[in-house]
């Protein structure tokens, strides 16, 4: 079986370290070839508040995830990513495109990018089953997909089953930390939609398609029409990676 090629697309700064490092480590252990890409080929940096200091201890990545992140941050592929704004950049050669999340405002660079929207707009339809291509996203990474529109003005995941960061979790985090972190937990600022609401608005039938769980145990949604998987927040990262690996391998048989 050929080696699966993975592209992890990121903003320059602000992604969640657990949602980045845990899947990366799992993909490498599975024998996949992994590359990173940022807008201009600058080495990405995950959210420092989730990695260091009192905010890490109270709210951020656990020791295992921090260790994993510190290890991947030294790898050649992380230090020398591709540029997703390069004229010759393409997603065509990848078996898997993975989109990590993170609530720091820097992730808006990729969520709002017309360049990434164009790339994913061309790529995502090719994941319709049967296909050798897969897309997976977690937390705010799902918004990169939901905000990407096709030629009809619909989100590229308009007919997919999906999950994302639950609105209740986002509100609890925001109001619980507002006194000392301000609007840190609101990526688009106070008064903006929750991630869940933003995603729901892009679905044809959100009551049926949007899947949710408020339990802390890992929860992953796999669509039936497309090779597309999604997760909610860091607790889901390992299971999302495992199920994604299984799906990618099954498509390459």
From TrEMBL:
<keyword id="KW-0808">Transferase</keyword>
<keyword id="KW-0315">Glutamine amidotransferase</keyword>
<dbReference type="Pfam" id="PF17124">
    <property type="entry name" value="ThiJ_like"/>
</dbReference>
<dbReference type="GO" id="GO:0016740">
    <property type="term" value="F:transferase activity"/>
</dbReference>
<protein>
    <submittedName>
        <fullName>Class I glutamine amidotransferase-like protein</fullName>
    </submittedName>
</protein>
<dbReference type="InterPro" id="IPR029062">
    <property type="entry name" value="Class_I_gatase-like"/>
</dbReference>
<dbReference type="InterPro" id="IPR032633">
    <property type="entry name" value="ThiJ-like"/>
</dbReference>
């Amino acid at each position: 079986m050929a080696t699966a090629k993975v592209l992890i697309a990121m903003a320059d700064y602000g992604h969640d370290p657990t949602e980045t490092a845990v899947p990366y480590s799992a993909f490498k252990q599975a024998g996949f070839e992994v590359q990173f890409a940022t807008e201009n080929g600058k080495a990405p940096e995950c959210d420092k508040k989730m990695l260091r200091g009192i905010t890490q201890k109270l709210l951020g990545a656990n020791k295992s995830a921090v260790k994993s992140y510190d290890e991947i941050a030294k790898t050649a592929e992380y230090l020398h990513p591709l540029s997703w704004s390069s004229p010759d950049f393409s997603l065509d050669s990848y078996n898997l495109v993975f989109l990590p999340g993170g609530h720091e405002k820097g992730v808006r660079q990729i969520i709002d990018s017309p360049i990434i929207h164009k790339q994913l707009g061309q790529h995502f339809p090719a994941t319709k089953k049967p296909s050798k291509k897969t897309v997976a996203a977690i937390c705010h990474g799902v918004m990169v997909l939901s905000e990407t529109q096709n030629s009809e003005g619909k989100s590229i995941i308009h007919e997919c089953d999906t999950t994302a960061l639950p609105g209740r979790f986002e509100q609890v985090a925001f109001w619980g930390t507002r006194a000392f972190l301000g609007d840190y937990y609101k990526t688009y600022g106070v008064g903006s939609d929750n991630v869940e609401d933003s995603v729901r608005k892009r679905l044809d039938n959100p009551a049926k398609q949007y899947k949710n769980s408020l339990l802390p145990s890992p929860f992953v949604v796999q669509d039936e029409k497309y090779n597309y998987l999604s997760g909610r927040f860091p607790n889901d990262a390992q299971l999302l990676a495992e199920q994604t690996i299984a799906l990618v391998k099954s498509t390459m048989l």
